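Late entry, evening session. Most of the bench is empty. Finally got around to the prediction I had been postponing all week. Sequence below, unchanged from the version circulated by S.P.
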Amino acid sequence: MPVHGTAQPRLTRRGGRQGDVGARRAAYEARWALLAAAPAGAPLASADVPWLPAAPAEARPVVLFGAEGAEAARRRVRAELMRWHPDKFGARLGARLAPAERPAALERVKAVAQMLTQLAREVAAEG
């Protein structure tokens, strides 16, 4: 059964209040957990991927939520970079992506990784 056949929390833009950001972070992690719990080889649609918000200003609070201090922020961004690294993502999940969606999804993964690389630079400069 495809992963997208199950109910999933969605990341939506809800303003900047901390509770909303916390809920968005929790939904993001819940979707990653759901993806990890799916049977090996289960088909995966692009909509099943727990994408970060496309805009860096929206992604930053989701990525850094709960990371207290500069070192924790650097570790968090590094963990996200490992999760979204195009080669690692492709090896882990690329073959499961629907063939028609694979090229666009992998391009989006690359864009997320680039955004996270920029965020890593910003966090390093701040701390």
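Two things to note before I forget:
The radius of gyration is 15 Å.
DSSP finds five helices and no strands in the chain.
Will write this up properly tomorrow.
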